[in-house]
Design a protein that fits this description.
The protein has about 350 residues and is an alpha/beta fold. Helix content is about 35%, strand content about 25%.
Length: about 350
Amino acid sequence: MILSRLTLSQFRSWPRLELDLDARPLAFYGPNGAGKTNIIEAVSMLSPGRGMRGAVPGDQARQGVDAGWRIRAAAGDDEIETSALPRANRTVSINEKNTPQIALGQILRLIWLTPAMDRLWIEAPEGRRKFLDRMTLSFHPDHASLSLSYDKAMRERNRLLREQVTDPGWYRALEGQMAEAGAKITQNRLAAIKAIMAAQTCDSDFPAAQLSLLPGEGFADDPNANDIAGRLETMRARDLAAGRSLSGPHRADLGAIWGPQDMPAALSSTGEQKALLLSMILANATALEGQPVVLLLDEVAAHLDADRRAALYDRITALNAQTMLTGTGPELFSAFGPRARHISVSRSDGASRADEAS
């Protein structure tokens, strides 16, 4: 058991929710709009960033931007609280001490899968890059601070580019910072891919995938800091014309070929793409054996037949991870039986409520 207690106040549709948790998977079911996803979104806020929906704090308050919200959780020996006052950024405290968000990555390893990710393989690289970085963060908590350093230097470089500054002296320091952080970001991504591939199983329900990091135009497979700095310098004239940085680790992509026919993910069926994502998520959790892993699976039963759902639940109960799932009806989780807790979520007069099934 990783999280033993969760309390929500004025978060999304929940005026108040108090849950005592144990090691069993937790299956929330109810109609669309009842508030199921709001619970696991709140849990996702116990990690750095904007959580599984990428929402700004003002959009998460139950009563709008003029209200606030609070999430509290007991995680092992730590008491975590994150909250947002009206029209303000969210704050984080651990054991009643204010702390940067990135410290959350040292306490919990949050992994999630949402319906929005179902189109991951056929949409723009940005989504796959974020997906990869979320997995990478679970292995390397420093990945968040490295990304912040890289992005900060890139924003300054982009400002120079927009203002059409041509003096190379202004660029060298920023490009050096981008190169140092970018090389470490790339190493972390490659290490995460290697760990996930090693943890995959070769069963028929969730086949293993051949994953790869596509570092972007002009880069070798594993660019170092000198490679990145050299590329940024070479691209400077082209970047000046565009007014932004067109090359670097921020343009990387995740490649995947999987299944018995070595099918590129983008050409697979919707069900196969879902199974591929689940295979990677399960491998991510498996590779983190011994770490405090919380797995959040939103509407996970979509595009899965009954046999594959049963196989998924068997895999989940075998994991050393705390798992929360959502779905529209109790029948979607019947294959769990008593191995999971089943909680009905409903909504009335704009407020959600939870009732545990007997």
